[in-house]
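Final report, Chapter 2: Outcomes

The project's central promise was a pipeline that accepts a single protein chain and returns its three-dimensional structure in a standardized token representation, suitable for archiving and comparison. That pipeline is now operational. To close this chapter, we reproduce one record exactly as it appears in the project archive, with the input sequence first and the structure output second.
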Amino acid sequence: MKTDPRRGETATKPGVFPSTSFGLEEPSILVIDPRRRDREKLLRRLIGLFAEGARFLSAASVEEAAGILGREAVDCILVSQRTKDSVAALGSLAHGKEGIPIPVVLVVEEVTDTVATRALDAGAFDLVSSAEGDGPGLYRATRNAIEAVRMRRILEEQRQVLASGAAGSGHDPVTELPERIQFCQQLSRALSRDGAAGTTGVLLIGLDEFKAINSSFGHGMGDELLRVVAGRLRHCVRNVDTIARWGGDEFAALLQEMSRPEDAVFVAKRILYALSRPFVHKGQDIYVTASVGIAFVPEAGEDVEALLQHADAAMYRVKGLGGNNYQVYSPQMNVSLTDRLGTANRLRRALKQEEFILFYQPQLDVHSGRVVGLEALLRWKDSAEGLRSPAEFIPILEETGLIVPVGDWVLRKACTQARAWQYAGLSDLRVAVNLSPKQFRQQDLSKRVATILRETGLEPGSLELELTETVLMDDQQRSSKILSELKDMGSLIALDDFGTGYSSLGFLKAFPVDTLKIDRTFIRDIGADEEDRAICSAIVSLGQALKLHVMAEGVETEEQMEILRGQGCHLIQGFLFAKPMPPDDVWDWLTEKSEVRP
């Protein structure tokens, strides 16, 4: 059933984005726009975006909205720039019935630095473009606003409990873990103790796509899974630490008396590893991943509110990048919204104005010295700031959804370049291209790849597509189908960052892959760390047993190369041989070193 959003009723139309746990039973979103047609158009877009039930309210003016805010609890306000005095009213709109500040998102025709500066100074939470196709931006801004309200309510609840001196209600009945209020009380006590500064950390742990499991297997199985997750989390921390049920599909960890901040990172890695093992339900393996946000004292603040807000921000940064990872909060994450929005706009223009370029890093066979392939790596030659590091703009491409058209451009450009090198005489050269999670989830991925290969003239066997284990595990049945389609057309498949995810025999048997790429984190200390050396040896042996190629990336020293070669790994990529280079430099390098021997 789909109800009329103008009546303020719940909308239940399935969304096009993954369902998200907001921690609110029914978030309310207020839309302000003086034009009825545009107002209803925005409401329809919101209904289509959110898979979760949500309550939508609308107003034609700031005055009408003020009346609604006086009698309704609202979680997010979207106000059109066309609304009279929209920017001037941002501050007053942010005060709602509950006394908790309401995030206000300004909807503008184009996000410019001038507009962003004015809006943010006036109290806007975020800005979003009203342009068609900016669904990811609208979804991200609205979701983040709702999450901000959720966190503010949690903190207000905790403050009231502490002020009254009342005890919490006990433990969560599903997981038998302490509940949120008890966690906040323990965190407050930890921060108030002498000597706590610098030794306390908070982890917020959100399960990725947990609602899809509930939908597929039922809430009973979902509760059982939460109990198992709780048990695994308990084994990842010390007795002095605390694991709590934060709410919904989220957990929290309080780490006390740490000797160094890196201890929290170690715990986060243990959590990701513990959750990587499959959960068995009626003979079927179910995989669950998590996004972990980490906040330390004093870098992320020295009070309960600051630590929780910053851990929450770090966790949702991980979720925005695909999940199954951790993020440590740092002051650098608080880059101004103006800069972020300005970068997103420049990235849109960069695609149109062809400011993106590809660098290529050679991949070699250490036994023969032959160059077997080149990995295509995206770079941005910003007209204003010069060459930009991928770390500066790839996350923004992911957040805005621009990674899909940019990824298509990368694939086409790399195939065109590889074909040109083949025409010039390098007939057996192949090119490797990374596929982002959002690209891989496109319904017509196989057709897109086939079209690009046909139009560029590159043989499918000269293209290797690189994916991470996490991407494939999101939907195993669909992933297997897509990989089979790509393999049937003749393309090669490589598993990137192998060793950091599931890395099991069953996993490899489920998917038709050709190459395992050992993650560089295991290569860096392979000379001194026996565990890293053992992991690399096990991956090489596993690859050999399954008749797969194994490539080590991030090889920078002769010692690393010799150890890997002794273990039987014959494909190498890294600075020891060559750094990523622009196409012209690649040609010079290839023609000068037609046979590279270490």
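Archive annotation: The two ends are 67 Å apart (CA to CA).
This record, like all others produced under the grant, will remain available to the consortium after the project formally closes.
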